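User: Predict the complex.
Assistant: Input components as received:
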Amino acid sequence: MVHLSSLLLKKYHGGHVVIRLALAGHKQANRPFYRIVAAYNKRARDGRYIEQLGSYDPLPNIYNEKLVSFNFDRLKYWIGCGAHPTKPVAKLLGLAGFFPLHPMTITEAERQRVQTEKTETNTDMCQVTLDNTQVTI
Amino acid sequence: MFQVIGGRSVPAARLLAPRSAVLVEAVRGRKSRTDPVAKSKEGRIKVPPPVDPVEMVVLKERYTEYQLIMSALRLEFKEEVLRKKYEEETGSQAEERVRQEAEEHRSLMAWNNEENLRMLKARILRVQQEAEEAQRKKIEAAIQREQEQQEFIKEKEREILQLQEEVKNFITVENLDQRIEEALDNPKNYNFAIDKEGRVVKQTALQ
């Protein structure tokens, strides 16, 4: 028989609490679902957590929405106790309005915009050249 | 390094062209530290993604601002947590709660004491009654025993008297000859006949 108490009462040396996304164990291929969770740093990603503070569904639903939920009261408590949020959690919270908007979100958006503008101009140029060639022909 | 698996979860392409004898699946960390570099990657120099200096400056500014706001938020939340704890322990509510709990405790203790007194009285009564019952029973038992003794004595006396009366009819050494003579002179016939209806007939053939 496995001695369960030692697995549950692990003592970590110099660990801290993090707020991160943990994959909820639905055991379905190609259908992820994340729990926003306060856990110790050294624990496995999907292992035992201290408290669940929300959820995040990365796949959009029938109305093209990605649903996120937060328990702001407990979030404030954990951040006040010194928990570190991870990058994706910080980005989500920034989009939600609880944190300031993450710099990388803004830069990614700017890059995306530049990219789309470039592709638009390219297609316009292609269209223009096509018309020109047609005209010449 | 390689993980050997059964045939079910392997895609078709790998099924059709396995070079090795057993079916193998790619697992993270394929190569161990002693495996050589692949031929296609021999002269490869890993280069980090290019950095746009303008964007980098802007990004650094944004990051400083973000970190400022984040640290301020953290301090705010910490203060809130501490304040909540403080109020929980030594707030206005806490005193009232303590007072109410003390009052409740006192009232409950008073009720408990009353209950104890009541039970004590009931118990005393019960014990008294039981003692009286026991006394009475003892007395009754004693009387009964006395009576039985008396009856026993009377019974014995009656037997003695009866025996004394029977002594007169006993056969002793002096009466022996006389009684033998008497018995021989008076033959007694104990024979009788009886039929199914219960009629007794004492007259029989003597001998």
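Residues 92-167 of chain B form the longest helix (76 residues).
Let me know if you want any component modeled separately.
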